[in-house]
Amino acid sequence: MNKWVRAHTNIALIKYWGKENEDLIIPKNNSLSLTLDAFYTDTSVTFDDALTEDELILDGDKQDARTLSKVQRVLDEVRTLAGLESKARIESINHVPTAAGLASSASGLAALAGAASQAAGLDLSDQELSKLARIGSGSASRSIFGGFAEWIKGHDHDSSYAVPVDDAQWDIGMLFIIVNDAKKDVSSRDGMKRTVETSPFYDGWLNSLDADLSAMKQAVSDRDIEQVGQIAERNALKMHATTLGASPPFTYWTAESMKAMDAVRALRKLGYTAYFTMDAGPNVKIICRQSDLSALKQELSKTFGDEQLIAAKPGPGLHLLN
């Protein structure tokens, strides 16, 4: 009986946006994220000679070939490393809305890397697991680790992986405002590619990242939540600005996203430490003190429904479930 493996999602505070190598998923810049406890994926893998093709059962439903393609890259690498030829059955339960800017692919592909290598009898280091997860989904490389992690861009398969930065065992949390959990119109992968290829703003974004990253690492080291929040909010806004210059232009924001951003600015006027970040989707994540989570939730419930507000604390790295 193969074991179940759990990986939590992570939210990037210094964003990954753009690939240097599409095939290997080598990014154009380093990124830094916080792994969270509220959203996660549980996965189990069985290699079975009786199977004629790989199959993926996600939340009880068999998935199509397109969804399977990301997964097969990871399975093929595991088969190569373990000298296996058997096809695999993957069972996965997502405790994250899929493809709505809530990093379901990060937890999903990290859990797959752990479960598939475990089922194949491989004993991989965290660094090797991070590389394995990366070839399925770039951000998944960071979900191998709990707390803050940095994905080092590298230049080839062996040099591109995440490393732990800080365990985040201090007064930091995140509050999600879910304005829309539907599948988005432009996937991260497509949006990223279009922006890199066509947006005149992209180079400006790229050139500002080293400064953002070193400032963020200093702020995390100092446990300075004001600085963490300010740097993350500006970094996210710069990333989203690049999409408006793409051809054709696009945005992940909705009217509700704008309303949520304004609500965060209003919280600051009330004296709270509250800064937003957004990924390739309409939902807004508030970086705040963990000790303020319930007060912020109460304040925001005047504007948003309780079901739209999800509090999260720093989460653990990849682990086996008993």
Automatic annotation (TrEMBL):
InterPro entries: GHMP_kinase_C_sf, Mev_decarb, Mev_diP_decarb, MVD-like_N, Mvd1_C, Ribosomal_Su5_D2-typ_SF, Ribsml_uS5_D2-typ_fold_subgr
GO cellular component terms, A-Z: cytosol
Keywords assigned: ATP-binding, Lipid biosynthesis, Lipid metabolism, Lyase, Nucleotide-binding
EC numbers for this chain: 4.1.1.33
Domain Diphosphomevalonate decarboxylase-like N-terminal: 7-162
Highest taxon of the lineage: Bacteria
A Pfam family annotated for this UniProt entry: MDD_C
Keyword DNA-binding part of the UniProt annotation: no
Record keyword Aminoacyl-tRNA synthetase present: no
Domain Mvd1 C-terminal: 175-308
GO biological process assignments: isopentenyl diphosphate biosynthetic process, mevalonate pathway
Molecular-function GO term, any one: diphosphomevalonate decarboxylase activity
PANTHER family to which the protein is assigned, alphabetical: DIPHOSPHOMEVALONATE DECARBOXYLASE
Recorded family membership: Belongs to the diphosphomevalonate decarboxylase family.
Protein name, per record: diphosphomevalonate decarboxylase
